[in-house]
Amino acid sequence: MSGMSGMSGSSMPGGSSGGSGASSGSGQTSAEQFPKLTGDPGTVKLGMAYDGPKGDQSFTDSAARGVANATGQGVQLVAELAATVGEPDQKKVDRLSQLVDQGANTVIAVGFDYATAMGTVAEANPDVHFAIVDDASLTDPSRQGGPLKNVAGLTFAAEQSSFLVGVAAALKSTKGHVGFIGGVNVPLIQSFQAGFDAGAKAANSGIKIDDKYITQPPDFSGFNAPDKGQTIAQGMYNGGADIIYSAAGGSGTGVFKAAKAANAKAIGVDSDQYNLPTLADVKDVILTSAVKNVDVAVYAMIQSVAAGKPLTGTQVYDLKNGGVGYATSGGFVSDIQSKLDDYKAKIISGEIKVPSTLG
């Protein structure tokens, strides 16, 4: 699970003007955002490299949904491989190279921590199409040596969806005290905090906000440490917060457990976590979720290769093109939905500029 740090670029190819999770109620990707693949899907030989195992109920699983929708239409899945926590970049280089060696002509890496490795492998394989989720360093025009022409940077305006759930938290808090828990203290996750804090303060200038991170780099285990997420959340709830936004991947399950024990609320991330079967026992504490449609970005990359026009450069998925949004499942924000949509409209129009960095 990752964010993005205020990149700008072209709009989402093939996306809809709506957004799953915006006002659709489900927060999951809507059918129109998976248009039938055009061109020749059978020519796509796909290799997927995840930054953690499937089953995180958010970031990785969202990417996997995009893959599933494509393979159901004839795309060949060469292999799906996952990283381990704290592994060196060379292991990521080996993993990406393995996908190429196995015949993949399209390689998608899910997670910004693949950037260094992808730079190496993409330069060595100019005829292979690469994409990386949550990173634009390889497609940055100011990059030393210039942007890589066979790479697409799939980035998300996570600060925009985080702003909206920040508004929701402030409006629904009865104590005027909310919290943010990030998985790892890196710029990409700081953009979630920046948006959330700004949204909460926009709705209530006097709101108290607790901001904490589970781990500090180079320790990236904070994205899959539910026990630590639960402990931090318990401390926040005991300290007076009544709603906590967790931007911490699989660690969010611990935050939900803490919310349940405290008779409080929490906010999910990346997918509409209220609707996930594995979270059925805590769904009643999930106020909303900041939805990031990684599945749509992954699918768009696959579609572009099938159509013979592979995406390159930085692709930004935001509120305007339906790349991010907020979930309404459970009806907990129904009474404030009109206010949330007003803020959404102002962000889309540019009237509200959401910060993507702290400070």
UniProtKB/TrEMBL annotation:
Keywords on record: Cell membrane, Lipoprotein, Membrane, Signal
Protein localization: Cell membrane
UniProt region (Disordered), positions on chain: 1-61
Biased composition (Gly residues): 15-24
Source superkingdom: Bacteria
GO cellular component: plasma membrane
Bilayer topology: Lipid-anchor
Composition bias type Low complexity, residue spans: 1-14
CDD domains: PBP1_PrnA-like
Domain spans labelled ABC transporter substrate-binding protein PnrA-like: 44-356
Family: Belongs to the BMP lipoprotein family.
Protein name: BMP family ABC transporter substrate-binding protein
Organism, scientific name: Nakamurella endophytica
Primary gene name: bmpA
